[in-house]
Amino acid sequence: MAPTLQQTQAIYLLPLRDDGSPDVAGEYIYLPPPSDPAYKIRFVIEGTSSICREGSLWVNIPPKGQKFVRKNYTEYKLTPDFNRNIEIDIEIPHAGPFSYYITYTPLPKLTTGKSDVPEATKTKVWYLDVSPRLSVQESTLPLKSLSIISCLSKFMGDFSSDWDKHLHGMSERGYNMVHFTPLMMRGDSNSPYSIYDQLTFDKQIFANGEKDI
């Protein structure tokens, strides 16, 4: 039997400060597109950090195969350790904006008198972005290759007679992706974001309704 090649699993380190904030430049966490096998993000916390006192790391990255629900956080207990850092590995199954926070009980103040018992507290929420994987005809595209223009769909005119010339003009200016404001029937304000009926396309643009789509 021929030997099989084992695929390595990449791990991205995310060190956290004593207040739970990410110890990275600008505190902005930007991760590459998901891979196969899935790579991991490793939260690294100093074992003697005060946030480890009755602490828990809460992350809303869903396990593989589960649907992402923004309010659903998974708890990872933080056990203080004077000899090593605490490391928590979490697989990244798909792209999206995720977040984490930490709950812990602060250390009591040093005093010779009576001190109040600290109450459990929660840090602010920090965010991490996992880039999507884009492809055209089975070829992967880096996000930097996109040149996107946003346009107000209600000013595009009739779909059958006006859109081609507008799209051609955008292409001539070097744009390769178009972001449209909602194409549905608008409300009384006529704002492109004031949708009257989410199930009906704008009849001023699409005279034949869904047949034009």
From TrEMBL:
GO terms for biological process: glycogen catabolic process. Keywords: Hydrolase. Transmembrane segments: none annotated. GO terms for molecular function: 4-alpha-glucanotransferase activity; amylo-alpha-1,6-glucosidase activity. Residues 41-137 form the Eukaryotic glycogen debranching enzyme N-terminal domain. This is Glycoside hydrolase family 13 protein. InterPro entries: AGL/Gdb1, AGL_euk_N, AGL_glucanoTrfase. It comes from Aureobasidium melanogenum. It holds the Pfam family hDGE_amylase. Residues 140-209 form the Glycogen debranching enzyme glucanotransferase domain.
